[in-house]
Design brief:
The protein is an alpha+beta fold. The chain contains 6 helices and 16 strands.
Protein backbone atom coordinates (compact mmCIF):
# COMPACT_ATOMS: atom_id res chain seq x y z
CA UNK A 1 0.00 0.00 0.00
CA UNK A 2 1.44 3.35 -1.05
CA UNK A 3 -0.18 6.59 0.14
CA UNK A 4 0.29 9.60 -2.14
CA UNK A 5 -1.25 13.04 -2.51
CA UNK A 6 -2.48 14.24 -5.88
CA UNK A 7 -3.78 17.78 -6.36
CA UNK A 8 -4.33 17.97 -2.61
CA UNK A 9 -6.34 14.75 -2.51
CA UNK A 10 -5.10 11.76 -0.45
CA UNK A 11 -4.89 8.63 -2.60
CA UNK A 12 -3.66 5.13 -1.81
CA UNK A 13 -2.25 2.74 -4.41
CA UNK A 14 -2.44 -0.99 -3.78
CA UNK A 15 -1.46 -4.11 -5.67
CA UNK A 16 -4.13 -6.76 -5.13
CA UNK A 17 -3.67 -10.49 -4.80
CA UNK A 18 -4.78 -10.65 -8.45
CA UNK A 19 -1.71 -8.58 -9.41
CA UNK A 20 -3.80 -5.56 -10.44
CA UNK A 21 -2.78 -2.09 -9.23
CA UNK A 22 -5.76 -0.04 -8.04
CA UNK A 23 -6.14 3.45 -6.62
CA UNK A 24 -8.62 4.55 -3.97
CA UNK A 25 -9.40 7.75 -2.15
CA UNK A 26 -7.41 7.25 1.04
CA UNK A 27 -10.41 7.99 3.26
CA UNK A 28 -12.49 5.75 5.51
CA UNK A 29 -16.16 5.89 4.59
CA UNK A 30 -17.20 6.38 8.22
CA UNK A 31 -15.66 9.60 9.57
CA UNK A 32 -13.08 10.38 6.92
CA UNK A 33 -9.87 9.27 8.62
CA UNK A 34 -6.91 8.51 6.37
CA UNK A 35 -6.67 4.74 6.08
CA UNK A 36 -2.98 4.49 5.21
CA UNK A 37 -0.35 6.92 6.53
CA UNK A 38 2.84 5.14 5.42
CA UNK A 39 4.05 2.46 3.03
CA UNK A 40 2.71 -0.94 4.10
CA UNK A 41 3.70 -4.33 2.76
CA UNK A 42 2.06 -7.76 2.67
CA UNK A 43 -1.32 -6.50 3.88
CA UNK A 44 -4.52 -8.20 2.78
CA UNK A 45 -6.98 -5.60 4.05
CA UNK A 46 -7.34 -1.90 4.75
CA UNK A 47 -8.15 -1.30 8.42
CA UNK A 48 -9.15 2.17 9.60
CA UNK A 49 -7.22 3.17 12.73
CA UNK A 50 -10.25 5.06 14.06
CA UNK A 51 -12.97 2.40 14.44
CA UNK A 52 -11.38 -0.59 12.67
CA UNK A 53 -13.68 -0.62 9.68
CA UNK A 54 -12.09 -3.10 7.28
CA UNK A 55 -11.95 -3.20 3.50
CA UNK A 56 -10.59 -5.67 0.96
CA UNK A 57 -7.79 -4.74 -1.42
CA UNK A 58 -10.52 -4.27 -4.03
CA UNK A 59 -12.08 -1.62 -1.81
CA UNK A 60 -15.07 -3.66 -0.64
CA UNK A 61 -16.32 -3.12 2.90
CA UNK A 62 -15.71 -6.27 4.93
CA UNK A 63 -16.77 -5.53 8.49
CA UNK A 64 -17.85 -2.67 10.76
CA UNK A 65 -17.21 -3.75 14.37
CA UNK A 66 -19.92 -2.91 16.93
CA UNK A 67 -21.80 -0.98 14.25
CA UNK A 68 -25.23 -1.80 15.73
CA UNK A 69 -24.06 -1.63 19.34
CA UNK A 70 -21.65 -3.55 21.54
CA UNK A 71 -20.82 -6.93 19.97
CA UNK A 72 -23.36 -6.28 17.19
CA UNK A 73 -21.06 -6.28 14.18
CA UNK A 74 -21.99 -5.54 10.59
CA UNK A 75 -20.51 -7.92 8.04
CA UNK A 76 -21.07 -6.72 4.50
CA UNK A 77 -22.39 -9.28 2.02
CA UNK A 78 -23.61 -6.80 -0.58
CA UNK A 79 -21.65 -6.41 -3.85
CA UNK A 80 -22.89 -2.80 -4.19
CA UNK A 81 -22.47 -1.38 -0.70
CA UNK A 82 -22.27 2.43 -0.60
CA UNK A 83 -19.69 2.22 2.20
CA UNK A 84 -17.12 0.62 -0.12
CA UNK A 85 -13.99 2.67 -0.76
CA UNK A 86 -14.23 5.11 -3.66
CA UNK A 87 -12.00 3.90 -6.47
CA UNK A 88 -9.95 6.30 -8.56
CA UNK A 89 -9.45 5.59 -12.23
CA UNK A 90 -5.83 4.69 -12.91
CA UNK A 91 -3.62 3.22 -15.63
CA UNK A 92 -0.21 1.56 -15.52
CA UNK A 93 2.35 2.27 -18.22
CA UNK A 94 5.57 0.34 -17.74
CA UNK A 95 6.80 1.27 -14.23
CA UNK A 96 4.53 4.28 -13.78
CA UNK A 97 0.98 4.71 -12.46
CA UNK A 98 -1.26 7.51 -13.75
CA UNK A 99 -4.49 8.52 -12.03
CA UNK A 100 -7.51 10.51 -13.19
CA UNK A 101 -9.36 12.01 -10.23
CA UNK A 102 -12.56 13.04 -11.99
CA UNK A 103 -12.77 9.95 -14.20
CA UNK A 104 -13.42 12.08 -17.28
CA UNK A 105 -10.10 11.71 -19.11
CA UNK A 106 -9.88 9.87 -22.40
CA UNK A 107 -8.64 6.30 -22.46
CA UNK A 108 -5.00 6.32 -21.37
CA UNK A 109 -3.81 4.39 -24.44
CA UNK A 110 -5.11 7.27 -26.56
CA UNK A 111 -3.67 9.90 -24.24
CA UNK A 112 -0.17 8.40 -24.40
CA UNK A 113 -0.25 7.60 -28.13
CA UNK A 114 1.44 10.86 -29.27
CA UNK A 115 4.46 9.65 -27.30
CA UNK A 116 4.41 5.90 -27.94
CA UNK A 117 4.51 6.36 -31.70
CA UNK A 118 7.97 7.91 -31.27
CA UNK A 119 9.28 5.05 -29.12
CA UNK A 120 9.40 2.33 -31.76
CA UNK A 121 12.58 0.32 -31.28
CA UNK A 122 12.90 1.01 -27.55
CA UNK A 123 11.95 -2.10 -25.59
CA UNK A 124 10.90 -0.65 -22.23
CA UNK A 125 10.45 -4.14 -20.81
CA UNK A 126 14.27 -4.20 -20.60
CA UNK A 127 14.31 -1.27 -18.17
CA UNK A 128 15.39 -1.74 -14.56
CA UNK A 129 15.20 0.89 -11.86
CA UNK A 130 18.59 2.31 -10.95
CA UNK A 131 18.13 5.11 -8.46
CA UNK A 132 16.20 8.32 -7.74
CA UNK A 133 17.12 11.76 -6.46
CA UNK A 134 14.81 14.29 -4.83
CA UNK A 135 14.83 18.07 -4.72
CA UNK A 136 12.80 20.74 -2.95
CA UNK A 137 12.46 23.89 -5.05
CA UNK A 138 11.13 27.29 -4.04
CA UNK A 139 9.25 27.75 -7.27
CA UNK A 140 6.01 26.82 -8.97
CA UNK A 141 5.90 23.35 -10.54
CA UNK A 142 5.18 24.85 -13.96
CA UNK A 143 8.57 26.59 -14.03
CA UNK A 144 10.31 23.28 -13.27
CA UNK A 145 8.54 21.53 -16.15
CA UNK A 146 9.28 24.37 -18.55
CA UNK A 147 12.94 24.25 -17.58
CA UNK A 148 13.06 20.51 -18.28
CA UNK A 149 11.75 20.79 -21.84
CA UNK A 150 13.35 24.12 -22.80
CA UNK A 151 16.94 23.83 -24.17
CA UNK A 152 17.48 27.57 -24.69
CA UNK A 153 19.12 27.94 -21.25
CA UNK A 154 21.71 25.19 -21.81
CA UNK A 155 24.52 27.37 -23.19
CA UNK A 156 24.16 29.81 -20.28
CA UNK A 157 23.50 27.47 -17.34
CA UNK A 158 25.11 24.11 -18.18
CA UNK A 159 28.74 24.37 -19.41
CA UNK A 160 29.30 20.61 -19.58
CA UNK A 161 26.00 19.89 -21.30
CA UNK A 162 26.64 22.60 -23.86
CA UNK A 163 30.04 21.06 -24.62
CA UNK A 164 28.36 17.68 -25.06
CA UNK A 165 25.80 19.01 -27.54
CA UNK A 166 25.96 22.63 -28.67
CA UNK A 167 23.04 24.93 -29.35
CA UNK A 168 23.28 24.57 -33.12
CA UNK A 169 22.77 20.80 -32.79
CA UNK A 170 19.63 21.11 -30.70
CA UNK A 171 16.38 20.72 -32.57
CA UNK A 172 13.44 23.11 -32.16
CA UNK A 173 10.76 22.00 -29.76
CA UNK A 174 7.49 20.60 -31.06
CA UNK A 175 4.10 19.93 -29.51
CA UNK A 176 1.01 17.88 -30.23
CA UNK A 177 -2.02 18.49 -28.05
CA UNK A 178 -0.93 17.55 -24.51
CA UNK A 179 2.59 16.34 -25.44
CA UNK A 180 5.74 18.47 -25.70
CA UNK A 181 8.84 17.10 -27.37
CA UNK A 182 12.44 17.94 -28.22
CA UNK A 183 15.67 16.09 -28.95
CA UNK A 184 19.10 15.96 -30.52
CA UNK A 185 21.74 13.67 -32.01
CA UNK A 186 25.06 13.47 -30.17
CA UNK A 187 28.37 12.71 -31.82
CA UNK A 188 30.27 11.22 -28.87
CA UNK A 189 29.73 9.36 -25.62
CA UNK A 190 30.71 10.59 -22.18
CA UNK A 191 30.99 9.04 -18.70
CA UNK A 192 28.50 11.62 -17.43
CA UNK A 193 25.95 10.12 -19.80
CA UNK A 194 26.70 6.52 -18.83
CA UNK A 195 29.49 5.62 -21.24
CA UNK A 196 29.83 1.83 -21.47
CA UNK A 197 26.33 0.96 -20.23
CA UNK A 198 24.27 -1.60 -22.19
CA UNK A 199 22.03 -0.25 -24.94
CA UNK A 200 18.44 -1.19 -25.68
CA UNK A 201 18.60 -4.50 -27.59
CA UNK A 202 18.31 -4.40 -31.38
CA UNK A 203 18.37 -0.62 -31.42
CA UNK A 204 18.66 0.93 -34.86
CA UNK A 205 21.87 2.75 -35.76
CA UNK A 206 20.09 6.11 -35.95
CA UNK A 207 18.93 5.81 -32.35
CA UNK A 208 22.29 4.81 -30.92
CA UNK A 209 23.32 8.46 -30.82
CA UNK A 210 19.92 9.98 -30.13
CA UNK A 211 18.28 11.62 -27.11
CA UNK A 212 14.58 12.55 -26.98
CA UNK A 213 12.60 14.48 -24.35
CA UNK A 214 8.88 14.27 -23.71
CA UNK A 215 6.45 16.02 -21.40
CA UNK A 216 3.05 14.42 -20.89
CA UNK A 217 0.84 17.19 -19.56
CA UNK A 218 0.65 18.17 -16.83
CA UNK A 219 3.76 17.07 -14.90
CA UNK A 220 5.18 13.74 -16.12
CA UNK A 221 8.35 14.08 -18.18
CA UNK A 222 11.10 11.75 -19.33
CA UNK A 223 14.02 11.46 -21.68
CA UNK A 224 15.16 8.44 -23.65
CA UNK A 225 18.78 7.66 -24.48
CA UNK A 226 20.12 4.45 -26.01
CA UNK A 227 21.31 3.28 -22.59
CA UNK A 228 18.83 4.80 -20.12
CA UNK A 229 15.45 6.42 -19.45
CA UNK A 230 15.28 9.30 -16.98
CA UNK A 231 11.88 10.20 -15.52
CA UNK A 232 11.20 13.66 -14.14
CA UNK A 233 8.15 14.53 -12.03
CA UNK A 234 7.36 17.94 -10.55
CA UNK A 235 4.82 17.77 -7.72
CA UNK A 236 3.15 21.03 -6.63
CA UNK A 237 3.43 21.87 -2.93
CA UNK A 238 2.06 25.40 -3.20
CA UNK A 239 2.04 28.32 -5.59
CA UNK A 240 5.74 28.93 -4.95
CA UNK A 241 7.04 25.48 -3.99
CA UNK A 242 7.39 22.10 -5.66
CA UNK A 243 9.08 18.75 -5.18
CA UNK A 244 11.13 17.19 -7.97
CA UNK A 245 11.80 13.50 -8.39
CA UNK A 246 14.25 12.23 -10.98
CA UNK A 247 14.13 8.44 -11.39
CA UNK A 248 16.81 6.79 -13.50
CA UNK A 249 16.35 3.50 -15.33
CA UNK A 250 18.99 1.42 -17.10
CA UNK A 251 18.80 -1.42 -19.60
CA UNK A 252 19.17 -5.06 -18.60
CA UNK A 253 22.21 -5.75 -16.42
CA UNK A 254 23.07 -2.07 -16.59
CA UNK A 255 20.58 -1.54 -13.77
CA UNK A 256 22.22 -3.85 -11.22
CA UNK A 257 25.43 -5.57 -12.36
CA UNK A 258 28.53 -4.68 -10.34
CA UNK A 259 30.56 -4.08 -13.48
CA UNK A 260 28.35 -1.09 -14.34
CA UNK A 261 28.29 0.44 -10.85
CA UNK A 262 30.77 3.18 -11.73
CA UNK A 263 28.85 4.12 -14.88
CA UNK A 264 25.59 4.32 -12.92
CA UNK A 265 27.24 6.55 -10.33
CA UNK A 266 28.46 8.82 -13.12
CA UNK A 267 24.95 9.21 -14.48
CA UNK A 268 23.54 9.91 -11.02
CA UNK A 269 26.20 12.52 -10.26
CA UNK A 270 25.61 14.19 -13.61
CA UNK A 271 21.89 14.50 -12.89
CA UNK A 272 22.63 15.86 -9.42
CA UNK A 273 24.99 18.46 -10.89
CA UNK A 274 22.71 19.48 -13.76
CA UNK A 275 19.67 19.90 -11.58
CA UNK A 276 21.63 21.82 -8.97
CA UNK A 277 22.61 24.24 -11.74
CA UNK A 278 18.94 24.57 -12.70
CA UNK A 279 17.43 25.13 -9.26
CA UNK A 280 18.93 28.57 -8.69
CA UNK A 281 17.65 29.76 -12.07
CA UNK A 282 14.16 28.37 -11.50
CA UNK A 283 13.96 30.02 -8.10
CA UNK A 284 15.12 33.34 -9.57
CA UNK A 285 12.35 33.13 -12.15
CA UNK A 286 9.86 32.54 -9.36
CA UNK A 287 11.19 35.60 -7.56
CA UNK A 288 11.01 37.70 -10.71
CA UNK A 289 7.38 36.80 -11.28
CA UNK A 290 6.53 38.85 -8.21
CA UNK A 291 7.43 42.00 -10.11
CA UNK A 292 4.42 44.06 -11.15
CA UNK A 293 6.27 44.93 -14.35
CA UNK A 294 6.64 41.34 -15.57
CA UNK A 295 4.09 41.12 -18.38
CA UNK A 296 4.69 37.60 -19.70
CA UNK A 297 8.05 38.23 -21.33
CA UNK A 298 9.53 38.94 -24.76
CA UNK A 299 9.69 35.46 -26.25
CA UNK A 300 11.93 33.77 -28.80
CA UNK A 301 10.08 32.70 -31.96
CA UNK A 302 12.39 29.66 -32.18
CA UNK A 303 12.56 28.30 -28.62
CA UNK A 304 9.44 29.55 -26.85
CA UNK A 305 6.31 28.50 -28.83
CA UNK A 306 6.20 25.20 -26.93
CA UNK A 307 6.27 27.05 -23.60
CA UNK A 308 3.41 29.22 -24.84
CA UNK A 309 1.50 26.05 -25.72
CA UNK A 310 2.20 24.63 -22.26
CA UNK A 311 0.86 27.83 -20.74
CA UNK A 312 -2.30 27.59 -22.86
CA UNK A 313 -2.82 23.99 -21.74
CA UNK A 314 -2.49 25.03 -18.11
CA UNK A 315 -4.89 27.94 -18.58
CA UNK A 316 -7.39 25.73 -20.41
CA UNK A 317 -7.50 23.03 -17.75
CA UNK A 318 -7.52 25.46 -14.84
CA UNK A 319 -10.30 27.38 -16.57
CA UNK A 320 -12.40 24.25 -16.78
CA UNK A 321 -12.09 23.81 -13.02
CA UNK A 322 -13.22 27.37 -12.20
Amino acid sequence: MLPVEIAGSPIVLVKGEDGVIRAFHNVCRHRGAKLVAENLFSRKTFVCPNHSWSYSLKGQLLVRPHFYGGDSHDVNHSPCHRANLVEVRCAVWHDWVFVNLDGEAKDFSLYIEPITRHLTGYDFSELGFGDAIEFEIKANWKLAIENFIEPYHVFSCHPWLNSFVGMAEREPLTFEDHVLRCGYNFQKTDPARGEGLPYFPNLSAEKKNRGDWFVLFPNFAFEVFPDQVDVFIATPLGVDRCHETIAIYFIGEGAHAVEYASAREGVLKNWQDLNSEDIGIIERMQGGRASERFDGGVLSPYWDPVLQHFGRLTYHYLGEQN
